Each structure stands twice: as structure tokens, then as C-alpha cells.
Amino acid sequence: MTVRIESAVPQSADTGSADHNGKNLDELLDLDKHRLSVIPQKKSTGTERWMKFLGIPVGIAVFLWLYYMPTPAGLTASGQSIIASFCFALILWISESIPTHVTSLILMVLLVFLDGWDMKNVLGVLGFDVIWLNVLAFILSSLLVKTNLAKRIALALIVKFGHSAMPMMLAFLLLQLVLAPLIPATAARTVITLPIMLIVASIYGSTNENPNNFGKNLFLQNLLGINIFSSGFMTGSTANLIAISFIFSMAGTKVYYTDWMFANLPVVLIAMSLAWVIGPKLLFKLSAKESTPAVHGGIEVLKKQLDAMGKMSFLEKKGAVIFGIVVILWVTDRFHFALFGFQIDPVMAAMVGGIIALLPKVGILKWNDCDIPWHLMLFSAGAYAGGLALNDSGAARWVVQNLFSAFHLDKNINFWLLYTIVISVMMYSHSIRWHWLSLPHLLSTGLSDCRSARSRMSFCSRPVNIPYWTTSNTDSSWQR
Questions:
Q1: Are 429 and 438 in contact (CB under 8 A)?
Q2: Is the residue at 450 inside a domain?
Q3: Structurally, how many domains does the chain consist of?
Q4: Are 47 and 432 in contact (CB under 8 A)?
Q5: Chain segment 35-77, per-residue pLDDT in tens
Q6: 3-class DSSP state for residue 203?
Q7: Domain-embedded: residue 101
Q8: Exposed/middle/buried for residue 15 (C-beta within 10 Å: 0-12, 13-18, 19+)
Q9: Is the pTM of this model over 0.85?
Q10: Is 375 inside any structural domain?
Q11: Sign of the four-CA dihedral 39, 43, 48, 50
Q12: Which one of 11, 173, 235, 465 has the lowest number of neighbouring Cβ atoms within 10 Å?
């Protein structure tokens, strides 16, 4: 992980002071400037450039080989075309030779043109409840940004706990815990917390020229928290929503919000509690100097920001009520029949909240305020279509059976051995950022939201380039 951090706190604690470019701390904490619907431009590394260069020819070669090879026994012609199309898309997704959402559109076209899956099914994927829930969740998360409620929550936690290192890092973990069920995008939660992380790191003396163990612990624990807390809640990640949809469509079992939370949240809390202790106490031990702020009055900078926001505005209270209603409906989903005599689906609960938020004169948002990453929706639709086509055609079952046979695994295999193998493959593939490599899992369950997983890992492994305050002896400037 490479994070370019200069001093994120101006020499003066006056939050209204600006540098010669007219930029100040208010602009750093302005979450409206970091929109998920805008795809950021990034400079590719040497390896990435080679992958992009080789992706298309390798993908075409693999596609032609799989498509024109003699159809194996037990596999239909349509199943063969789906496997060929999916592998072609898989290589393009990994190499990013073309944007991932464009690859998804290509996959959808190939599925139809090659008679792998009919057009009605392919186009209908974009109308699935999991896609709708994603769109509506992004509308609701825009509510937190528009009303400054997310900013207030973040600043309040940091100011309250920020006078020593361990409570400060605990505050960030609590912040990630609060945001995880509300915002189903790791990138969005990163946008909300990263500017404050940069400021806090420099308050504790961790800069690009002089990194210390506090900075290492702060960033690693937040990256871990953004990732792991997503697993604790059904709405914590698009991957969770797709997994639940597959469980229902393939096994006929409905997973309630509380089912997911009670099964996963305790494990998540234990894991993050261990990380909170192990990092500062064993891996990157904090010295006495690193355990207290290095910049005198540094926390006061953030406190002034919080004070400048004043008391909760009417819009913030309205936003909190709207979001609160939706969350309560999500959490109490298994009790709806007893309470109302009918079931309120999470999608409908989110839609009610979205309608209220967008109603003229009643709501808070205008359509242009809604930060919906449609490229992610298109990516998810194409990936979901590919996974369902593999399942419906029987191609997924054929691939899994042949993989099991190749490794001499049969139906009598010990459950825990199989579980360990699958989890190990998933962990390994995740660790190298290519969640797609876990083909046995992907082909047997369709396709999880690998874009979400990949974005989390790419954030961990690539330089972070966002605007931040820098102060030197000669001038102050904004850098990107």
C-alpha cells in the first residue's frame, strides 16, 4: 500500500484560513467533490499496461479455442458458447483491456448472438431486485452526503475519541461499523473517511517524509475495516446482495437481514477487535511519542470543523429519520408478517425511502444529487447474466463436476475439507486482487460482485491520489 501523505493540517489551526490557491480544509472535507458516478483516471503500472496489451488477443484466442473445439460429452452447444463467452469476458475483466462495464455489455451481446441465453433473460437482469436495491441504496447514501450527516458522524467520533492513539483508532472502527450497513459501496465509505484519515495521520506525526507506526496502523485497520465490516450486514456490499439472490433462486431459501447479521456480525466484531489490538501492540508497536498527537491543537482543527457545522439542521434530522425508517424496516424484516400482516422486501423498504427523499418539497434530494455509479450497475448486470446463463444451461454443473473429477474429489468428500479448499482458494484469489480466479466457486454460485472486491483490494495495493492539504516551509498547495 502506498499512500502519499504530506502534512494534512495547516500550520494554523484556523479552519477558515486558505492557501494561495484559495483551498482550505473545508474543501478537503467536502464529500460532494468525490463522486462515485465519475470514473477516476489512473496511471497504469508497467504490469497493468502489459495486461491491457495482452488481454484482448489472449481473450480472443481463448474464446475461439473454446467455441470451436468439439463439444465435450455432457455439455450442450449453448453451454459451450456460454463458457467461451464467459471466459473471454473473464480475461477482459482481469486485464481491464477495456472498461469492465463495457466488457459486461459485450458479454450480454455474445450470450444473445451465440444462442447461449435468450435476449429477454439477458436484458431482464438489469431489472432484478438486486440491481434495484443497489440503485436505491446509492440514492440513500447520497442522502447522507447531501445533508452532511456522514461528515458530522465522522467528525463527532474522531473529536470525541481522538486525544490518544488507541481510542482514535477505535473511533475509526466504530465509524466503519456505523457506515457499513448504510452504504453498500466500499469506495463510497473510503471517500467519506479517507480525507479525515489523512488529517488525523498528520496530527499524529505520520507524513510522507516521516511515516510512523500510528499512520501504518490507522490506514491498515481502516482498509481492513472497510472490507470486513461489509461482511457483517446484508446491505454492506453488492456481493452480499447477489449472494442472497443466488441462495434464494437456486436453493429456495430466503435469507433475512437479521439472519445475515446474526451469522456474520459476531465474527466480524471479533476479527476487528483482534486487529485493533494486534496491530498497535504486536505488529507496529506504538511508542509513547506516537500515542499522542504530534501537532499541538491538531484535534482542535477537526473540532472547529464540527463546531462550524452547528447543531443538527432540519435537513440532517429529516435525512436521519428517512434513513432510520429504512434501516428499521431492514432489520425487522422477519417480523413484518406478525406486525403488518405482509412482508416488506428490502427493495421496497429502500424504494419507500428513496421516494420520500426525492419528493418535491417533502424530500431532500434532487435527481442530480444522486450519486449512482451506473457503470457499476452495468458491470453487475453483465456479470450476473453470465453467472445465471452458466447455471441455467448446465454449464456450471458440468465444469464443477469435471474439476472435482480432475482432483479425484467425489460426493463423499469430507465437508470441512471441501470448505477449507474453497475458502483457501477464495482467500488466495482475493489476496492477489483477482477475485475472478476462484472459478469453482463462481461457476457453482453464479457470480459474486467481484468489482466490489476488486475495488477494495486495488485501494489496498495502489497509490491513493486524492486532493489533500500540504504544508511546507515555502508554500502550501493542493496536490492530486
A1: yes
A2: yes
A3: 1
A4: no
A5: 767 776 778 888 889 999 999 999 999 999 999 999 999 999 9
A6: helix
A7: no
A8: buried
A9: no
A10: yes
A11: positive
A12: 11
